[in-house]
Design a protein that fits this description.
Radius of gyration: 26 Å
Number of domains: 2
CATH superfamily of the largest domain: Fumarase/aspartase (Central domain)
CATH class of the largest domain: Mainly Alpha
Structural class: mainly alpha
Length: about 500
């Protein structure tokens, strides 16, 4: 069980809840922490006192955005919240996957549980009930510019809480009200400001970003494994990974990748076979500079992890309702620029990691560079071997280079120029999600080719870590002795890559 308090929620917990089964099917249960509920109650009590007065409070007794100057009569203030959710549920495009929606539900609950939004505890309890029962609002992927909140995506979530719109449970899509009733969950009657609090946040951008960053972390570790396999297949030298070199330029990511490569390659018979008499002085950059390039991607991942962990435990709506002194403070915590920029950086790092991987694939398949049979085929000419694996990787890389173009600099003024600088965070999130998936495909292609290359050096054994990775792959994909469809082989290795099975062989 995870107690939601607005503090200390980790990216690992977010991924576990998002990708795991709902509590009713044996997964992790999520509940509102008792102290957090008391904080929420104090914030709500302060809002009730403010509601009794005549002070204009944005989103409580005023309209939204450009309509902030319009005062709302007391008897219409709850209707205002319902209307906001309905009008803002204007998303379009494909529905986000259930795991993303689960991350959004968890993150929005955690943000509101901080007790700075003026919401009643029941709002968070209802969000968590959806998670525990496996009821996932249908959330279209388009409809947020990453400022003033992820408006349309979060409005579709709030709509389902009200028993309206569409939702999915157990693979079946139905009216949200029907699914709530079947689970015994009462629709939420929104009180003052609660509609605004539900749609005004960065949880769609952050939810997609967290899941992509976690996958990217596994891909980073797998890239070291893929590179070590390729180095052995190409009879490269591990000397550039010596600790003394990296102590002279002590970037933590570079040091970590060099250490991992040394460990993967330790005890290699292949290395010993060409230690003496090899005319090569240095390997190509795609082999020799793996710690520097992989390490740069590790630095980007570490930065993104810090940003996303902070954002996951932040209050990101507006205005804030602070019970100390009955303060209502309007600000801009809904602006997702810091998340958008870090996700753009991850997309850039992923593209470069794929670029160096694709160059190693080319070296493995090119007989002029590898000293191995062309395209790693036992009978080149009549058999094409793994020729098209590099083409598939190159295709994925071309798309990744387009996705690496930053969206976070492309502000578009919205809401009659009231919201005149936006982060485009959702575009960044969609890009990085696709980019990480493509990176996994490129790494799978390299591993598939690298394993075939290493086996041309039998009976010599590779480093212990490389041999363990080879065993994982060969348990699912046999050696390519005759041409066959490579799509199934790639799919099998891709499953290993995406699952993290090859991170630490």
């Amino acid at each position: 069980m995870i107690a939601i308090s607005g503090e200390g929620l980790t990216l690992e917990q977010i991924e576990a809840v998002a990708r795991g089964a709902p509590a009713m099917h044996g997964g992790t249960e999520v509940r509102l922490d008792g102290e957090a509920a008391r904080k929420m109650h104090r914030s709500r009590t302060a809002l009730e006192r403010l509601k009794a007065g005549d002070l204009p409070v944005y989103g409580l007794n005023t309209g939204f955005g450009r309509l902030a100057d319009v005062r709302i009569a007391r008897e219409a203030q709850r209707e205002l919240q319902r209307n906001m959710v309905r009008s803002h549920a204007a998303g379009a495009g494909a529905a986000l996957p259930a795991e993303v929606v689960r991350a959004i539900l968890l993150l929005r609950a955690n943000a509101l549980a901080r007790g700075q939004s003026g919401c009643r505890p029941v709002v968070v309890e209802r969000l968590l009930e959806l998670l525990n029962h496996g009821i996932h609002p249908v959330v279209p992927e388009l409809g947020s510019v990453g400022a003033s909140g992820d408006l349309a995506p979060l409005a579709h979530v709030a709509l389902a809480l009200m028993g309206e719109g569409r939702a999915e449970a157990g693979g079946e899509e139905r009216d949200a009200g029907e699914l709530l009733a079947a689970a015994g969950v009462a629709p939420l009657e929104l009180a003052e400001k609660e509609g605004l609090a539900l749609v005004n946040g960065t949880q769609a951008v952050t939810g997609i970003g967290v899941l992509a960053a976690q996958r990217f972390g596994r891909a980073l570790d797998t890239a070291d494994v893929a590179g070590a396999i390729s180095l052995e297949g190409l009879r490269g030298t591990p000397r550039p990974f010596r600790a003394e070199i990296h102590a002279a330029r002590p970037h933590p990511g570079q040091i970590a990748s060099a250490r991992r490569l040394r460990e993967l390659l330790a005890g290699s018979d292949i290395r010993e076979s060409h230690r003496a008499g090899d005319p090569r002085v240095q390997d190509a950059y795609s082999l020799r500079c793996m710690p520097q390039v992989h390490g740069a991607a590790r630095e980007a991942h570490a930065y993104a992890h810090r940003i996303l962990a902070t954002e996951a435990n932040s209050t990101t709506d507006n205005p804030l309702v602070l019970p100390e002194g009955d303060l209502v403070l309007s600000g801009g915590n809904f602006h997702a620029q810091v998340v958008a920029q870090c996700l753009d950086l991850v997309a850039i790092a992923a593209a470069d990691l794929a670029a160096i991987s694709e160059r190693r694939i080319d070296r493995l398949l090119n007989p002029d560079l590898s000293g191995l049979p062309a395209f790693l085929s036992p009978a080149p000419g009549i058999r094409s071997g793994m020729m098209i694996a590099q083409v598939t990787a190159a295709d994925a890389l071309a798309e990744m280079r387009v996705l690496a173009g930053p969206a976070s600099i492309d502000s578009v003024s919205t809401s009659a120029s009231q919201e005149d600088h936006v982060s485009m965070g959702m575009a960044c999130a969609r890009k990085v999600r696709r980019s990480v998936a493509l990176l996994e495909t490129v790494l799978a292609a390299e591993i598939l080719c690298g394993v075939q290359a290493v086996e041309f050096h039998r009976p010599l054994r590779a480093g212990a870590g490389v041999e363990r990775a080879l065993a994982e792959v060969r348990a699912r994909v046999p050696r390519l002795d005759r041409d066959r469809q490579l799509a199934g082989d790639l799919a099998a290795v891709l499953e290993l890559v995406a699952s993290g099975a090859l991170c630490n062989p």
